[in-house]
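User: Hello, can you help with two protein structures?

Assistant: Certainly.
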Amino acid sequence: LQSENLLQKTNELIGQSGVVGEETNRLIMYLIFTSRKRTQPLHIVSLGSSGTGKTHLQEKIGELIPEEDKIELTTLSENAFYYFGQRELKNKLILIEDLDGAENVLYPLRELQSKKRISKTIAHKNTRGETKTLHLVVEGPVSVSGCTTKERLYEDNANRSFLIYLDESEEQDQKIMRYQRAISANKINQEREQEIQELLKNTQRVLEPIRVVNPHAELLQLPKEIFKPRRTNNHYLQFIEAVTFYHQYQREMKADENGEAYIETTLEDIKSTNELIKPILLRKSDELNGATRNHLESLKQWTKEKGKTHFGNRETSRHFRKPIATIKRYHYQLTELGYLHVEKQKDSKTYRYKLTALANDETRSQAIDRALEQALYAITSGKNGSTGLPSAHSTNEPPKPLKTSKKKTPAQ
């Protein structure tokens, strides 16, 4: 935790622990799991087609979290969460293998995420046959992780979570299959993988629940293209704090006027966050769901490489090795939103499609890049740019510490 390039080193260790590929997703997931120790934990939902390894990735990153800090669930009854002990879930990581198998508990789960506690009043008969009223209370906060193929079905839960989309590329397929063959050939040192898993577990154990203050927060602006900006803005700020929290052994300990210890976010924490979650911000600004967007990007690459101007459903189905019904659904959505233009073939019942100018529009990506760069410039230059906000160092600055220690760690 005192190492230089901590995030890079952590990501490398995650790979050496047996997680193949998914370099960005695996680090995001690990940091979100780390946030369970904070008063405002983060949540994550993994999305992708069946068989892409959503559950496997969650399971492998979950193996890097101490057993005493996590609860793994498959199916639950509707009232299951209410019968945990009052503090049994506090600062725990809840891993749900398949959200489809946990539909009954999605409401109390959302309440735990938002309000950090759930309660229920029930009638209970004692040994004498007398009916008594019991008030059940279960306290959070909790960090929740789940997997699903159905993005729209769990929109309310997804709104409270970071959404990551699994890498379904052929390159990732090859990485996984090479790893599978290496295991079969006894070329993987699985004892070494377990040692690294234990190292990362112990790394988690020594993290202290210290408060994080971001003195630059007022200068951080998201682009207007982002849908549901209030919640997304909060996620963005909380992820920056999670990155700072993970670097706590490299931050100077300070104390406010009440003597409460805290550490401060640095410019490097913000830069690291921007690099990691730009794909998530792109998804948050997208009118297309993840699967349809992935298909559109694949179409753009395919038509460019082959010099194609038009394509049909069947040839697209054969090339991408996906059911034709799935391809038709993608193409219908893309046509309705103006990304594809459809033409009916003369003397035939078949349709041909071509990409429109909208499909090749890169303004969303450029807008997000520009907004993130402007915020960093405003911080480094000490100016408030066009935000209309005061500098983070001029007003609402965290109280000056009563005393500081030279690079002391939380444990010290």
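That covers the first. Now for the second protein you mentioned:
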Amino acid sequence: MFGKRFRNLIIGKQNYIESWLDYKNAVLRGNLIALSIFVGAVYLLVDWANDITGNELYYVSAILIGIIALYLNRLGKHKLSSILFMLLINLLVFLFASNDQYRSGIYIFFVVTAMSSIAIFGHRHKYWAIAFVVFSVVLFFASYWGDISLRPKYVYSEAYIKLNFAINFMIAMLMVIAQLYFLIAINTKTEKEIMAKNELLAKTNTELDRFVYSASHDLRAPLRSLLGLIEVTRHTTNPEELEQCYSLMKDRVHHMDAFIKEIIDFSRNARQ
């Protein structure tokens, strides 16, 4: 029940996505956005619990942009939602990595962002995926080797740095595992559906073989009767016998016509 409600939350209860690939990407995107909103809230609470100030604006902005991206995902604007989300997490990671002093492990999130871009955009929008992977790599080198800082530098306690490192590691692992689990779950579901369709196809083929055998037998029977009656008419000149043969021929033709109509009706009902 919770899974269905959560799915309705991230893609919309009334929204119908015809393409299975688009549906899979929409659910994955929604999960990642919801997870990023949760992560922003966690960091906000951690800083509040440790009396750390100065980062609230960044966390709240990340949460709000995540909510906007989730709303776009619900509206069906999947590509725009993906671009906004990937820009958000890349810039947010760069924002903190540029002032990291190489100690809190924030750089590991560039791996997560690159992986997320591949998972979200997929093969259909592979150029966007590649562009954001390159974007993540460029931001990594700019933050690691470049003397760039978009926010004031703060001096944190050793205990806070260790706590942040543990949190960053666990959240990065959680996001990677969540993506892999979702993709494996989707592939497993797809495999089960393919196996079920193959079983249905095999059953349908068996039924089709039986139908062809039965239909061919029922169609040949009137034809054999007609051939027999034609042969009889060739060897008689008795008007009564000829009239009887013609009546039987007409009956055989009507019988075959009725059987063909039954086949057509069956085919029409099966399609509906």
